[in-house]
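Q: How would the structure tokens look for this protein?
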Amino acid sequence: MADTATDTLTVPLYQLAHGRTGDKGNRSNISVIAFHPQLWVPICAQVTEAAVAQLFADRQPRQVRRYLLPQLQAMNLVLDEVLDGGVNDALNLDSHGKTLCFRVLQMPISVPGALAPWIARPA
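A: Here is the predicted structure in token form.
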């Protein structure tokens, strides 16, 4: 039997948080909201501007900014120039909104095993 007090688990972010998205022109907003306050610290430590910029390196964002809302255990990620010119200009029909959010929610996040009770497991 594993000792969850010392083990580290790596899970996709969607097991720790949910997301909301929006876009305006060539800018994408992706919000990440922790399911439980205990999960906020590892999410915040690993979903950084640099990590998100690396995740979207193929889209070459001009800038990635992260705005923290600790009282809500949430963050807003703003990615500039990642939408192929924007919804009205892009030839790619599925490069916006929820597609980009799910890419963030697939990020692997390491959490202490002691937080296992707050990790959402797929049904």
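Strands lie at 8-12, 17-24, 27-34, 63-69, 74-80, 108-112.

DSSP finds three helices and six strands in the chain.

Upvote if useful.
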